[in-house]
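Reproducibility note. Readers wishing to regenerate the assembly model reported in the main text can use the exact inputs given here. Chain order matters: entities are listed in the order in which they were concatenated for prediction.
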Amino acid sequence: MTSAQIRQAFLDFFEQQGHSVVASSPLIPGNDPTLLFTNAGMVQFKDVFLGTDKRPYSRATSSQRCVRAGGKHNDLENVGYTARHHTFFEMLGNFSFGDYFKQDAIRFAWTFLTEVLQLPKERLWVTVHHSDDEAERIWKEGMGIDPTRFSKLDEDNFWSMGDTGPCGPCTEIFFDHGPDVAGGPPGSPDDDGDRYIEIWNIVFMQYNRSADGQMTPLPKPSVDTGMGLERIAAVMQQVHSNYEIDLFQALLQAAAAAVGTDQLNNKSLRVIADHIRSSSFLILDGVLPSNEGRGYVLRRIIRRAIRHGNKLGAKQAFFHQLVATLAEVMGDAYPELRLQQAQITKVLLKEEEQFARTLEHGMAILEQAIAELEGQVIAGETVFRLYDTYGFPVDLTADVAREQGLTLDMEGFETEMAQQRERARAAGQFNVDYNDQLDLEGQTRFNGYDALEGRSQVVALLSA
Ligand code: ATP
Ligand code: MG
Ligand code: MG
Ligand code: MG
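Running the prediction on these inputs yields the following structure tokens for the assembly.
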């Protein structure tokens, strides 16, 4: 099955079970200023779960575009290191707003996996929260799952919206990619999550937690689930890594051609293929590279990708070229990607050109510092200089360091930053941005969102 077919099969299945199919919301949460990016399917339904927003349906299903590259869920450092993490991915979900609860939620998931997708039961593994006897009973007696492929876990299987508010136990379903992959089952000491890969998380919103930590049962408990499309596609396409699925093939090939390598399994190539998805969708949803907030997360992702291209020997701007391939691969699911292709390409090219001016020089300085290093820690002064003068986000420097088994002196870096701020204050230059010369905001305008049938479309206007 292709990813597109899996996505459709999921939505169709839940529609048949009485769920309304709801379009993906943008990556910038419209209802939550505290959240950096939409990082789960439930985000657009948060107020429905809280009861402050009413919808004409009590069951919904969606395929939600998500970014986990900052804030509470940050998988940036995992990209290129695990088989299962992306910065951008799609989360398939079904939701019950005070409608069905544990029994149906578990039955739906099990039916979809074992009957619709026909996954062999002996390759699946289930976990529940240690306190959740009810879910355990449903799995063992209701679904008849094998008790040797079942475990009870603690904090991994408890979900909460925040320090207060709705919360409750989860049950998670894993797929065993087999003994060729190292790693033990969920909860075992040698579990690193890459042999038994978590495919589906089902959250039972059952309690309301108050400021004093008291948990009271919700009058109408709800269900929130999330299954990573790329992970279930890897299962269905009988590959271990998400990066081997259909959605990534054309991107990896285009990236290889653009940087001039033929090593299709190269880790850096995977990072680039991942990052073009998150960068493009963030720009599509109205984020522009800048030096703060969401824009800085985007800038960090782009620069990281450029550095990986540079490592592979890219001789010219390559990253922006991949937007065309992305639009081909994902344009059917997200038609707005095709509409905005030219603008996204322009924004990326501009950022590439800017960073190209300092990347080579900065890398030379970093490489020299590493060559002269005694010990395992790169000095805070070097990290600061790269950041301040060469536009190297700290995580980019950390990424280079990690490849060589080194770490950064973050305390030293913070000291340099504090001194920098002090100098600015002394000079009376309030609000000075030391990466000014790299700032795109002054040259870039966009007219924000144009909310259309629940989707937003951003029109980015580059006043070149
Ligand atoms: P993991 O433990 O593997 O990091 P998670 O517990 O953080 O996953 P959830 O927050 O439960 O993930 O999200 C629900 C589902 O979304 C997961 O079961 C998985 O299928 C998918 N998912 C989560 N994070 C990612 C990611 N970074 N890339 C791709 N898919 C993801
Ligand atoms: Mg995670
Ligand atoms: Mg997990
Ligand atoms: Mg989970």
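We highlight two features of this model. The CA atoms of residues 243 and 249 lie 8 Å apart. The mean pLDDT is 91.
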